[in-house]
Design a protein that fits this description.
Layout: H1 4-14, H2 18-37, E1 46-52, E2 60-65, H3 73-89, E3 93-105, E4 126-135, E5 140-147, E6 150-151, E7 154-155, H4 172-193
Antiparallel strand pairs: 1-2, 1-3, 3-4, 4-5, 6-7
Helix pairs in contact: 3-4
């Protein structure tokens, strides 16, 4: 087992300052805004993962365009858990994860909890671009939204994001990614000990 000093050193090595975490999230929102401004729609859904392969090694960035069905809970769960498991096969440890997608948004805090009604069920829902991030150690979540408007099926400009705020509950899409990663890591550890 690891002693407390080793655990703290590990946490410090794999965590970002709140300012750096916020900067990564706002940079991703700015990237989406630039993409939409020039008519590039390849931004959604999109996952960016900053990883480390070990102590004192440089951080890596992986950007994953999720060009797969991503319209319902089952599809989202399978895609995100699969991407997390794939990352674990590469032995990279996630430090920060940002997911960009179109989504339904509700201002009512009742909607969006893991075991409750979802924003799509709120009759007052609205369509948004959602940028959500997690600083993995310690788990810290941020999200921002920008309302979407469509004209003849095309997105209308301008795209203005809200400030990034801590959501009232955990962000299940990011948790599905982390869950896929952790399950694969547990399998790797179990295989080594058998």
């Amino acid at each position: 087992m690891f002693d407390a000093e080793t655990m703290e050193a590990t946490r410090a090595e794999l965590s970002l300052s709140p300012e750096e975490f916020l900067k990564r999230c706002t940079d991703q929102a700015a990237w989406v805004t630039r993409c939409m401004h020039v008519g590039d729609d390849t931004w959604t859904p999109h996952l960016t993962v900053w990883t480390k392969d070990g102590f004192e090694k440089p951080e890596q960035v992986q950007m994953m365009a999720l060009h797969v069905p991503f319209n319902n809970d089952r599809e989202q769960f399978e895609v995100l858990q699969g991407q997390g498991a794939r990352l674990a096969l590469e032995t990279a440890c996630p430090v920060c994860i940002v997911l960009i997608s179109e989504a339904w948004h509700s201002d009512d805090p009742l909607y969006g909890r893991a075991q409750g009604p979802q924003p799509k069920d709120d009759p007052r829902r609205r369509e948004v671009v959602l940028v959500q991030g997690v600083n993995v150690l310690p788990a810290n979540y941020l999200r921002a939204t920008a309302p979407l408007e469509r004209l003849d099926g095309k997105l209308v400009q301008p795209l203005t994001f809200s400030e990034f705020t801590k959501p009232p509950h955990r962000l299940r899409l990011l948790d599905w990614f982390i869950g896929g990663y952790m399950q694969r890591v547990a399998k790797k550890i179990a295989a080594r000990t058998n």
